[in-house]
Model the fold of this input.
Amino acid sequence: MTSLTIRRPDDWHLHLRDGAMLEAVTAESARDFARAIIMPNLVPPVVTGADARAYRQRILAAPGAANFTPLMTLYLTEATGADDVAAAHAEGLVHAVKLYPAGATTNSASGVRDFDKVQPVLERMAEIGLPLCVHGEVTDHSVDIFDREAVFIDRVLDPLRRRNPTLRVVMEHVTTAEGATYAREGGEGLAATITAHHLIINRNHILAGGIRPHYYCLPVAKRETHRLALVEAATSGSRSFFLGTDSAPHVDPLKEAACGCAGCFTAPVALACLAHVFEEAGALDRLEAFASLNGPDFYGMAPNAEQITLEKSAAPVPYPAKLETGEGPVTVFDPGFPLHWRVAR
Ligand code: DOR
Ligand code: ZN
Done:
């Protein structure tokens, strides 16, 4: 058996939802991750400090959350007030603000259309060192969905960063070689999260030989050359890249539908998938940097003191295919190959 002991990882991009779904999925992340940046795209979204405080309490009350620290975020709207953001940060509640371009993805209708309207908030965030987490896709219907990330960098992100040069920015779930290159070259105030699933699937997994809705997420997986660029970035050890699973549960009837929701539920298998990818790349010695060190470093936090051990067994590990929730079954991400890694308990 091969084993690898690393600092306990964190998840720098996670959807826990609310209600019965929150009750069911929280333990799936808390089992392996000490902390997670919690996405605010609830219905209605987590917009104010008061919203985040209440949501944090609901997360902490969920089964399995005892040793889990949710790091809350606020959903940036054109009405967000700089003072409320600064106060929520000062009390230690809020660790980032999330920018969704309006219409880009699940529950993003309250997102930003006119960036002039959010400029005062961005200026205050730069002053106080509060990071902006960016969903980097343009929403312009004339732009091909596979190009929306690269176009976003040119049209929106780069101008935004030039206007706010001291703002700390996380490019969330990058899916392209262009995204990885931009993040790598952006200096210490810029970083990118990468999901486990974008290291494994390309667009053929979604579309070739039948449509597979459980591989559909946003930003959508791109062609193989981009997947390879992401693997190179994640396994490079560069401080510009760290894990954000974007584990995003939707019940099966909402995925397996004429207009299915975007999101891959990876929490139960994310670390096993990562260990597989890093081992294949000959980079197991850099998994700790990606999963446990670079994220806290960017966010100005200490890495977790606790360690975990990943073990590789000769026989495949029987991960469950579905998680039953009070809202219905949620399909667990299937990497398409047997997983041999598990976290030792
Ligand atoms: O695939 C995705 N699912 N991408 C997102 O940006 C949102 C997420 C969700 O909330 O389901
Ligand atoms: Zn997300």
Summary: The mean pLDDT is 97. The CA atoms of residues 142 and 148 lie 10 Å apart.
